[in-house]
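This follows on from our talk about sequence and fold. Go ahead and set the record down below:
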Amino acid sequence: MSDLLQVEGLETYYGASQALFGISLHIAPGEMVTLLGRNGMGKTTTVRSITGLVRPRNGTVRFRGEPIHDLEADRIGRAGIGLVPEGRQIFPNLTVRENLVAWASNRSGAADPWTLEKVYDFCPRLAERQKNMGNQLSGGEQQMLAIGRVLMTNPYLIILDEATEGLAPLVREEIWRCLATLKEKGLAVLVIDKYVRNLVAIADRHYILERGHIRWEGSSAQLSAQPELWHRYLGV
């Protein structure tokens, strides 16, 4: 099976400061992959480089076999990459329903696409809160809305940057259950997070990032068998 996303030799700078040093990773259709590492190690820069929010200086990003590293962010989104950004960034002055409907599309041409009703079934709390404004939601509800908003675009790939940052433990568990459900439905997912114990239970493969370099990659079974990696690179 050919890869859905292929990143090769990515180098990204902020001015004269280099943030990424030859990042390479790949994601197959239907695969859940994580990008792990402490804060400030380049995870969000990697996401921003893939999604066109910053322009890499060197390297290539191919999505569904086509190069996208020179495209603007909106064109990358329309190609079928859905980003749940750090901080969620929902529209505070729109209702839950309006936040969802505003993004409705079928970018992947799915035969059985995500609809408003299916998103409500996926997350009943959004249905309960559909008339509430975005700024009236809890942090966990906002994160679920951000995920639902991306599902409404029917992407081939979802990227979640800091998927459970700042959320209470019970809410984090709900997010991970949702991610497991998306994987069961065959959606490719790239998760950026720091809770490795939970992610090894649901993800297929993992990359560990340190100071802009990929230091390790492997399966959940391999990562579970090497707890010293958790202490060395993740500080857990």
Q: What stands out?
A: The chain has two domains: 1-80+157-165+187-236, 84-155. The longest strand covers residues 17-27. The chain is about 35% helix and 25% strand.
